[in-house]
Amino acid sequence: LEVSKLAGTNAVKVSDEIKEYLQDKKAELSKLGIEYKITRDYGARADVAVDELVHHIVITIVIIFIMLIVFLGWKESLIVTFTIPAILAITLFVAYVSDQTINRITLFAFLLSLGLLVDAGIIVIENIHRHLHDENIKHDTMDELLIKATDETGGPTNIATLAIVLTIVPMVFVGGMMGSFMKPIPLNVPVALIASLFVAYIFVPYLSKKLLKMERK
What we know:
76% of the residues lie in helices and 0% in strands. The protein is built from nine helices and no strands. Helix 6 runs parallel beside helix 9.
């Protein structure tokens, strides 16, 4: 007996419900001399794959955090690392509102694009860091410093992000089985990249104001 899930349903949930139903009917089936054995469980396989992808996403975030500590400092690293869950939360919310399913390909797309998602935040925090430590740059207040440092990175960062988005969007027009398989990438990665800009321009300066200090000579 083979049971298949409907499109858009959760394979893990369907698998668990079937197992629960079989367990409830086990005594009744046993009286009839019927035994069963599960030979394939795609729900369990999907669950393991999702856990592994989430595990690798966490590892990637930790690697980014450590790398930024070396080059910028632990506070700057903490600010950029915070942007990652914020970007993912925005992207997942958009996916939820647009009635998209979160599957292994979606998580793989996030894992693949993590390096791209922190680019805008790294650029902004690096320029803020430069302004804070450059004795030749004078500012009256921390707010002026943050506004100027963020504004300087706006143009190049916007163009670079737009260029990446435009290279990914055409994937949505791929047809056939491959198009259906890869569809979550062009649907979610551009949203995540655009969200990374908003997070970089709003949260990074705000957190910099709270965590970083302007040293006056």
